[in-house]
Amino acid sequence: MASNGKAVMEADVYENPSLPNRTHEYMERFVYNNTYAAPQVKYVTTEIDPEIVWKIRSILFGRKKGRVCSLKAFINNVLAAHLEEYADVINQLKL
Fold first, then answer.
1. Cα–Cα distance measured from residue 83 to residue 91, given in angstroms and rounded to the nearest whole number
2. Which of 3, 33, 78, 92 has the most CB atoms in a 10 Å sphere around its CB?
3. Distances from the Cα of 50 to the Cαs of 44, 53, 58, 63, 70, in angstroms?
4. Tell me, what's the pLDDT at 59?
5. How far out from the chain centre does Cα 95 lie?
6. How far apart are alpha carbons 29 and 81 in whole angstroms?
7. Residue 58 phi, psi dihedral angles, 5° rounding
8. Model confidence over 42-59: pLDDT tens digits?
9. Long-range contacts of range 77-81, CB-CB < 8 Å, 24 or more positions apart?
């Protein structure tokens, strides 16, 4: 594990030199974000398409990275970002 707490080596994560900023932004926003890593309350359980779960696991548990964050934390990070990004639309839908 690196001194900054990240279990991956940056050289392994940023393999595509044409998109280093986008890759870094993605990893910071969805994978390294520990907001939902150890929730204090129990969450509602829901079903997720197994194909989507497999795709997420391939992001999180690759051989070069090891385990970076939990499936649950990643999904919560993605949903939180989606709700924030589309807050204006969502607020209009609630009317």
1. 10
2. 33
3. 18, 5, 12, 20, 16
4. 86
5. 30
6. 8
7. -70, -30
8. 888 889 999 999 999 988
9. 77/29, 77/30, 77/31, 77/33, 77/35, 77/36, 78/30, 80/35, 80/36, 81/29, 81/30
